[in-house]
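Checked the freezer inventory, then went back to the computational side. Two predictions to log before the end of the day. The first one is the construct we discussed on Monday; recording sequence and tokens without edits.
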Amino acid sequence: TVIILFFAINILMDKIKNDKIFFNNSSSSLNFLNLDNDYIKKFWVGLMDGDGSIQVNHWLKKSLQYRLVIKLKYDILNFDMLKLIAKTIGGYVRIVKQDVIWVVNKKEDIEEIIKIFEEYPLLTSKKICQLNFLKTCLTKNSMDYYLNNRNNKYDNQRDILKAPFVTPSYFKEWLSGFVEAEGCFSLRKSNAHSFSIGQNDDIYLIEAIKLYFEASNAVRNSYGNFYALEIYKKEVLKKIITHCLNYPLLGEKKISFEKFSEKLNN
């Protein structure tokens, strides 16, 4: 019995060393925040908009496969955040080499999660297109449709970009999830500290963030279709700090935020 147990432990340790072990619905160090499920769902939508992927693939052209994925750099806070998301929304979390990944790949689970997107819609144009394509594939359940349209999923993106943007009621929680993915808190020796956030294509979102924080500087188009907002004004930075205290960051970004907040409040 001892030999068998020792052998089993060795196998488990080998899996951990090879970053192949899976985790699902484990307890999280974030539980002490007493976050309600609605906050986590709204935050998760923002995180999906920033770092997520909504995928439809095929297996040997015989069956369609559906996946929701968030892939982050491995960090204990990112790991705990994704475990909390798995506990609240579904799916599982695994560590692969230097990454931690949240995955949902069961069709039934994805159909349930779509209901969350219906209550709190995605806001980035590409993710909206990805979700619409997945929903259409689920409805049609046709390999021919998938093969003929998989390269056309972004055809309606231009219409989304042209449509007027209405700030939704869940924008504050969504924004914290989006900041977790795309925000950057920068500390400099010159004391020219700043917060920046950017996105490809979706200038309407960056303008909405600028309006929410009452920032006066212009949204910059640094290159290609990338639009960014960089804020240096201390008065506005303090509004950003207040927002992140009221609507907390849940992953690795929380560390840089806490250092940033401490520096600005000194």
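The second is the one RB wanted added to the comparison set:
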Amino acid sequence: MAVLFAACDSDDDNGPDPDVDPIILSGTQSSPLVLENIFTNPAASDYIVEGTFTIAAGVTVEPGVRITMTPGARIDINSSGSLSAVGTEDNPIFIEGEQDARGYWDFIRFQSNNPNNRLEHCVISHGGGSSLSNRQAAVTLVNNAQLSMVNTVIQESMRNGLIVTNTDNRLPEFENNIVTNCEQFPIAIRPHQLSSIDESTDFTTGNGFNQIAVGGSSVSSSVTVNRAAGPYFFDGTTSFESSAEIGPGTMIEMGPGARLEVRSTGSLSINGTATERVTITGAQAAKGYWDFIYFNDSNSPNNQILYADISYGGGSSLSNRTGIISSRGSSFFAMGNSSITNSMRYGITLGNSSTWEDLGDNEFSGNELGDIND
């Protein structure tokens, strides 16, 4: 049972007594609850979270509410609960530490697939205190949780700003957010959530790494990588088992040994333009820093690389994968108006039965073992 404590106003109906204490939130909330804006003073805390406040029902936070988090405090939305915190531009919702210190409290964790989970016009500060696996952020999604986040600020996290841990997590709406001054990544997702990202969310200032981290995994659904406000950081191996498209102006920085694989059922279209080229490069400007883009027996006619600059890969010594662009089996890809530079091995390595279509105006330079290995 949740613990809700507050003093009572013994006066008339002219508003809360200035001596009324904020309400304490703790324990488990198992029935629907609306958190109202208690105080007219916008700087006054309406609610204080102590320990873990577990939400097992629908909780709604009204505009203007200020929630103060005590040391190590947590808001945990379990599978039967939901949290809808929707403020306005003039009356945002504040969730912040009792003290102005990074990591003062732990996290808001969504475990729920409820479509009512929403953070809008919220300012979330001083979280990220937990070192537990998959909870090293101010806001985290686990299990099959979904969350819409719009016009929201996450700032001053001791670790990451937002972590989306699982391939089943969803971000139905994600736009016009600011994630800043976090000690690690502002945003960390799986490839499955890439289609939710666009350049309206700003994550480019004050973070330990001003990138969106993308953890490697296999993706069986279609994915679009849209241009973001800054670079993506791809780590590990991302395998596309369906169609994948990288849109104009997108910048991807590959982690050490990182790989993009296009499997036989998948395709990859890198679609830059003359004015908005796609960049895929190493997170460090070192030859062989990352491995390859690998067409693994994919002969889709949609495999194409247009107006793209690809560099500092070629780190793999595996057979048929010694180029920044590599292929095996009956793979096909077309390439035009693109550059492949600074590979530790080859620019392109083709499998015996693979085909690449040269659409013209491609450039190669700085590839240690040669430009094309066929």
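For RB: The first strand starts at residue 3 and ends at 5. The chain has two domains: 1-191, 216-374. Let me know if you want it refolded.
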